[in-house]
Amino acid sequence: MSGMYDVDGAVETDMVGANDADAAHGAGARVVLDNVGHTFDGRDMLFRHLTMTLLPHHVYALTGPSGSGKSTLLSIIAGWLRPSQGSVERIGCGRTCWVFQNPHGVARRKAIDHVALPFIARGHTRREAESEALELLAAFGLSHRAHSDFRALSGGEAQRLMLARGVASHAGLLLVDEPTAQLDLHAARTVTDRLQALSMSGATVVVATHDPNARDACTDVIDLRDYQA
For the domain that residue 94 is a member of, what is the CATH number? Predict the structure, then answer.
């Protein structure tokens, strides 16, 4: 599955991502994980005893070896999957958006259009939406690509565009799954250099990654190896 998904809405057919009504980030917004653990077979635990509070304006790197449950924990945080043990409480987070590892956009639509659409959907005029979109494109190093077709973007540029669109969705909880997994070293670096910009809207951000550079670009680290039996 590719693109960006709005947990409270639906994947658009022409533009990936969420563009529902604006969700305010409530005062004291947080995600509380209390003694969370999960198993799929009832015997072998992927992780256990995970207790922490995730806060706005933080970008959490979710790390661990392949098969350690990174994507599973993202699903639990999003509310898609009930943990086998413990509980997750999302307080004042509003909507949740998920940016998947394979960027997918509309081939002949401009980069600026991909980022402006969520603003337009929330009632902004086209001029206001494009102004906001240009600020986000600049934050993700894409100012020079604002009027380029999606199909003309490199892999790293396309991934950064989807991250910018994630911020534009104004979700309170933004989940990013392996943003550099499909990129070469240079393209991956262009993405990791911009990861901290993900929290500029005040969202709580969790980035599942195996990339040490992506991990180091985040503000906090959750290493699932610390929660395995």
Answer: 3.40.50.300
